[in-house]
Amino acid sequence: MNGRWLVIANPISGQGRAMHHRHEIEAVLQRHGVAFELVVSEHPGHAIELVAHAVEGGCRRILAVGGDGTVNECANGIFRQRAAPTDEVVLGVMPIGTGNDWARGLRMPKDYAEVAALMAQGSHRLHDVGVAEFGDGSRRHFINVAGLGFDAHVVASLPDRTLGPMAYLVGLAKGLLSYDAVSLGLTFSDRKVEARAFVLFFAIGRYCGSGMNVAPRAEVDDGLFDVTLVQALSRWEVLKSLRKLFDGTLLDHPKVIALREAQARVDAGPVPVEADGELIGHAPVRFTLLPRALRVLAPPK
Fold first, then answer.
1. Both 33 and 64 in a single domain?
2. I need a surface site. Which of 106, 167, 220, 255 has the fewest CB within 10 A?
3. How far is it, in rounded angstroms, from Cα 129 to Cα 183?
């Protein structure tokens, strides 16, 4: 089964696009000579189980048909299994979700035929992976961005995601009205930072929150998190600075601290933590980076 792709379709991603376009996607893959089996995830966490089982059975190529959350589950399935080194398994995405931030950072095409062509060509690269470990012993891998503070507060406030991109705007508006800055302590290998934080990001990729460029200098294979700490802001300061979140100039803001680290511990009250657009636990949390630990489908650099 090594040459065969397991295609995991999330039936609710992109307002049900995976199911609406299933026959078109299958036809495109067949035209490009891609051997595959398509399965549909049935509940949260199901893709983790499907991928782990498939890799244990010999599969070494995984395609997520969905958004960042679907990709995250597939990545966690790869790291749950013990049958193969994780850097020998290829993970790709056909981006049809709400945010598609990981795909944006990799410059993955949205066109189904272009994704199929990359699969047929075997175009891939090595990619860093993050690990979030919590006080209860649980852990979660992530491949794009993890966050605490306003970021996770918005994710927790999101309405039904079948609303599509509007869900993020609704969550952002609700979040601004109800959010207070978080007091936290950051412990790195050689320093400690105490802050009142509007938001804190541990980034492997550059984008999250449906296009926010929170780590403009991030590289997905450099072995380091780009840590972006935005200190406490008033609501007016947030509104004035929104443009900086999208145009790549966030690090120029006087209340932003940018660091590059391979690991850190975050001590705070039991505030939510999100990764790749999904809530994964509550602080305190330790973040560790696994350099070049996964092989991913991507266009040539």
1. yes
2. 255
3. 27
